[in-house]
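[audit] Reproducing an earlier prediction to check determinism. Same input, same settings, fresh worker. If the tokens differ from the archived copy the diff job will pick it up downstream; this log only records the rerun itself.
[audit] input (98 residues):
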Amino acid sequence: MNVNPVAPAGGQAFHPDAVYRVNGDTDGDHRADVAFGFVFSPPEDGRQTVTVHRAEGDQAREYEAAGRTLFTDAPVSLGTEARVAESGPYTFFAGLRG
């Protein structure tokens, strides 16, 4: 998901007041059945973290991040090194890339 196509010139980090989401419709009714929500911390000293949630059913249609927390304070890659987090069967990466 590309959320800031002009980065890093137009922004150095993810917005801490936003909830970024990826919705999945698994039954063709045009409503989210599963959703991943991403909430970023305010950037500080060139660092930022993210908390990732996975919601199903009615929770997948909520505006706020909901459901089970998969990652808490996972590092965000704002530099040249990709910082990948793993938790159970999930692998996650967020960061600036060219």
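[audit] rerun output stored. Observation attached for the diff report: The radius of gyration is 14 Å.
[audit] end
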